[in-house]
Amino acid sequence: MHDDDLLSPENLRNPHPLFARMRRERPVHWNSRYRAWIVTRHVDVLRGLRDPGLSSDRVGALLQTAAPGTAGRQALELLSGWMVFKDPPDHTRLRKLVSKSFTSRAVTHIQGRIDGIVGELLDRCEAKGRFDLVEDIAFPLPTMVIAELLGAPVSDRERFRTWSDEISPIVFGSFDAASRRTAAEGAILNFADYFSHLVRRYEANPCDNLVSALIEARDSRDALSHDEVIATCMLLLFAGHETTTNLIGNGAYHLLSHPEQLRRLKADPALAALAVEESLRFDGPSKIVVRLAAQRLEYGDAVFEPGQRVFLVQASANRDDEVFANPDEFDIGRSPNPHIGFGFGIHFCLGAPLARSEAHAVFASLFKRFPSLSLVQDEVAWEPVLLSRGILSLPVTFSQSNQGVLS
Ligand code: HEM
Fold first, then answer.
1. What is the Å distance from ligand 1's center to 172 Cα?
2. What gap in Å lies between CA 311 and CA 27, rounded to an integer?
3. Atom number of ligand 1 nearest to Cα 56
């Protein structure tokens, strides 16, 4: 079990039997394939997320070894401005300033637009007759929402997708090929350049959008610098779309493959909010968060030495039977549901209200519009990545005759 391949076809398709075995037999163990401690029980993952001895600064060490004046160094400097890679007190300051403009605006200002965009996307799907739930709904919705929120042209969304895809390996720490690393560095620089222009535009002409709000964000003594606004825009765009795509895609897949749960949702659409939470728990988009031991730490009989990587496995914690009754059952009425799909503690996902509201808008309207919606095939392909979990495509079909009628 020590060197299990989390990316084997079997574990990509369904990692949960392996995680269950880990929780039972070696809840905290070293995996030399990934050079990381694997932490699997809810109680330990929660401890890890709260532990000041575990650092979020995964970029600092790389930065120290990057040659001065290179594109690689510049790219890492930009990434080091992302709050998700910072520890207190820098993290505390940045998060406070960003939260001021982001949290309330994100959901209250945009709720009506989210419903409108979902309606437009469903119209297009209806016209097609058969569609791909990932490509046609789960992907475009979050990108359109975050672009509108920031004040970036929605028509640039294919660029955002390309850059985000290219950045993923560097953010998730898996540079297996030098060419991918070079592409990632290039994408970071292009992304920053794009936002630098956008920020300059709104510095000169403030508008009612998030970029302008970030520029204005200040408290009595402090404000975000130009570079911090750029770094934050990149982070929001990167963090805000693929994760939400995967929440909608994974959740819809499990609803469609659990007919009795789907019937409950159709009979009582008010269950949509709980169905979003259960989707985050049962097969959420964030499988693992990574930390670095900043000091010697003991977790049970495991000893983390300074500098060692620690994988806090949310996907496993969310199926822990010490916390959840019948954890392998997908139950859209589950309440309370103390999942940690959005993390926990000081780095708890800043975009959680936005992601919840987008997924809710889809789950509440998709099955009303297409009551006969069904999967074209039972098996789906999962993205071959370590830290997140998402379906590559989800072809679905519906019969034209019973649209709009609750079955
Ligand atoms: C279902 C969708 C989402 C999931 C599952 C998710 C998951 C997470 C997780 C697990 C963390 C904590 C990372 C850590 O502890 O190292 C996090 C942080 C963060 N997320 Fe999300 N996220 C989602 C959507 C969003 C959205 C829509 C946005 C913004 C538009 C966003 C912005 C952020 C930011 C800024 C942070 C960093 C917070 C900090 O470091 O204090 N996320 N997210």
1. 14
2. 12
3. 16
Q: Is the CB of 276 under 6 A from ligand 1?
A: no
Distance from residue 343's CA to the centre of ligand 1 (Å): 8
Residues 6+ apart with CB under 8 A from 58: 85, 173, 290, 292
Token code pair at residue 306: 């300074």
User: What DSSP element (H or E) covers 38?
Assistant: strand 36-39
Residue 244 CA to ligand 1 center (angstroms) comes to 10
Of 392, 388, 394, 393, whose CA–CA distance to 7 is shortest? Answer: 388
Burial label for 318, CB within 10 Å (0-12, 13-18, 19+), is buried
Domains of the chain with bracketed CATH: 9-397 (1.10.630.10)
Query: Measuring CA to CA, how many Å separate 240 from each of 28, 161, 170, 395?
Result: 30, 11, 17, 23
The per-residue pLDDT for range 4-13, each reduced to its tens digit, is 999 999 999 9
The amino acid present at 2, given as its one-letter code, is: H
Does ligand 1 come within 6 angstroms of the Cβ of 236? yes
What digits encode the pLDDT tens for the residues 159-189?
A: 998 998 889 877 775 545 666 788 889 999 9
* 289: pLDDT strictly greater than 90: yes
So what's the pLDDT on residue 106?
Answer: 64
Pairing of strands 297-299, 54-55: unpaired
Cα(260) to centroid of ligand 1, in Å? 31
Which pTM does this prediction carry? 0.96
